[in-house]
Amino acid sequence: MGQRDAIDAAILKAVQQNGRISNADLAERVGLSPSACSRRLDILEKSGVINGYYARVSPKALDYKMIAIVHISLSGQFAKTLNEFESAVKLCPNVLVCYLMSGEYDYILRVAAKDLEDYERIHRDWLSALPHVVKINSSFALREIIDRPNVGV
Amino acid sequence: MGQRDAIDAAILKAVQQNGRISNADLAERVGLSPSACSRRLDILEKSGVINGYYARVSPKALDYKMIAIVHISLSGQFAKTLNEFESAVKLCPNVLVCYLMSGEYDYILRVAAKDLEDYERIHRDWLSALPHVVKINSSFALREIIDRPNVGV
DNA sequence: GGACACGTGCAATGTCCTTGCAAAGCCAGT
DNA sequence: ACTGGCTTTGCAAGGACATTGCACGTGTCC
């Protein structure tokens, strides 16, 4: 899985910057005819190199004004423990990102909330209810400096 | 700034899930004629509610296999100190996310790297070179559990 | 050298996006 | 309730666009 040449790389770069670029413009940008470009894009999509296209909506417009970074430790690192935690955390729609981490904490989460009251609800109904959790540490984002969809974009 | 009614909300939900949905399909989905739908979408884009569209590319295809979470403390919290740090960090293409935080550390960063060697280079050439930094703490993601573009999507 | 697979460009067809325009809905003030 | 003005809608047309079939060129392997 992966792009094959410089043209595929150029296509990927273009659609990362503008997911709604027309095939005609994309073809011109990468130096191909529209048909050839359309077929390459099709291959990149079907092979899974391109996972999908998304609109980026201003969180404020959706009333999600708050971002919390949550560090979580579990009671153990057995596979069963991790699996149960992960299955549960996937169900919470407010969790935007979740990584299993090296270091002091086991998981790090990025959580979106409408306001502090909303976060309190999420913390109470979702985070505290996750299985095997022994420690939760929430920090709040005061300001967003960077939010890039991809490297160098 | 924000959507006005249920139809705008439905449009936003749709384009968050599929940024390349055709206007015709979108119109049918939200129960409008294509022209009315196109005009609403146009307003949502021009008013900044929709920040843009992007393709989600498999990081593996781009050879970025590593995600690091970096906590950074500065030598002070004066506006000038923060501004200089932020201007500098914005220049590093590998920094995907950066928040000014409450709590123990001042900033939290999400950094993409191709491999450990690449991360070492980023750490040396970029992160360590950021102004006013007194403490850097890097943790590495062992596995990605969730990566949602938006709440509930 | 020949057969084959692969990628490309060209052309055509059908779909789609967009804009102008008239009508309908909506709200405020009387 | 009525009227005036503003907003939003649906329809229609024209122009742009995506997609598919087909033929040509290139490189490879036998």
Radius of gyration of chain A: 20 Å
Determine the structural class of chain A based on helices, strands and strand pairing. Answer: alpha+beta
The main sheet of chain A comes to: 4 strands, antiparallel
The count of β-strands of chain A is: 5
Beta-strand residue percentage of chain A: 25-35%
Task: Specify the number of helices of chain A.
Answer: 5
Give the integer mean of the pLDDT values of chain A: 95
Order of helices and strands of chain A: HHHEEHEEHE
Quick one: overall form of chain A? elongated
How would you describe the overall organization of this protein?
Chains A, B: InterPro entries: ArsR-like_HTH, AsnC-type_HTH_dom, Dimeric_a/b-barrel, Tscrpt_reg_AsnC-like, Tscrpt_reg_AsnC/Lrp_C, Tscrpt_reg_HTH_AsnC-type_CS, WH-like_DNA-bd_sf, WH_DNA-bd_sf. Two copies of one chain form a homodimer. Chain A is an alpha+beta fold. Chain A has two domains: 6-46, Orthogonal Bundle (Arc Repressor Mutant, subunit A), CATH 1.10.10; 66-140, Lrp/AsnC effector binding domain/regulation of amino acid metabolism (RAM) domain (Alpha-Beta Plaits, 2-Layer Sandwich). Helix content of chain A is 37%, strand content 30%. Chain A has helices at residues 6-17, 23-30, 34-46, 79-89, 116-127, and strands at 50-57, 66-74, 95-101, 107-113, 133-147. The first copy, chain A, has a four-stranded antiparallel β-sheet with strand order 3-4-2-5. The two termini of chain A are 21 Å apart. Chains A and B meet through helix 1, strand 1, strand 3, strand 4 and strand 5 of A and helix 1, strand 1, strand 3, strand 4 and strand 5 of B. The first copy, chain A, binds a DNA duplex (30 and 30 nucleotides) through residues 22-24, 32-36, 38-40.
